[in-house]
Amino acid sequence: MRLARLAPLASLLVALAAGPLAAVEAPVTVTFAHPETYPDLRLSCVSRDADARSLMAEIEAFLVATGAPLVPAGQRLEITITSVDMAGAIESWRGPGRCDVRIMKGIYPPRIDLTFRLVDDAGQELRAGTRRLRDSSYLVNAGPASSPDHLRYEKALLGEWLRGELGRGARS
Fold first, then answer.
1. CA atoms of 128 and 10, how far apart (whole Å)
2. Which pLDDT value is given to residue 119?
3. What is the pTM assigned to this prediction?
């Protein structure tokens, strides 16, 4: 009974909270095209779909947070990730005790393929392209290996791409 009385109030609160936010369009949007085909987006050899969804959410949050200050005012960046091959490899052949150990070697660099469009408020395409991002020096470039971030190498790769593609300046 109590829940039935709270439902209209909850709906009102959700509508009020979402109303102003829905009208503001984020300067960066991220889409993952066919993630089931990605070569390596997992935490272990027994990873589930939930792990991949969690990693995709982290990548999206990183791209939005890092890209938003770089996108000029009045423009929007649309990114479609088409492939992810995380740095390192899970060498499950090493035995069951190593199923959640990612081996980092120079032969396993992070690889991310994407397409992007930079558009203005009217939807006019200002720039677009396809990028195949690789960092064969990832073991040196991404900072300390002791970082607990599973995606530190991929984030470094994407951050470098964003800064190179959009410049280092802030929104005006």
1. 42
2. 97
3. 0.79
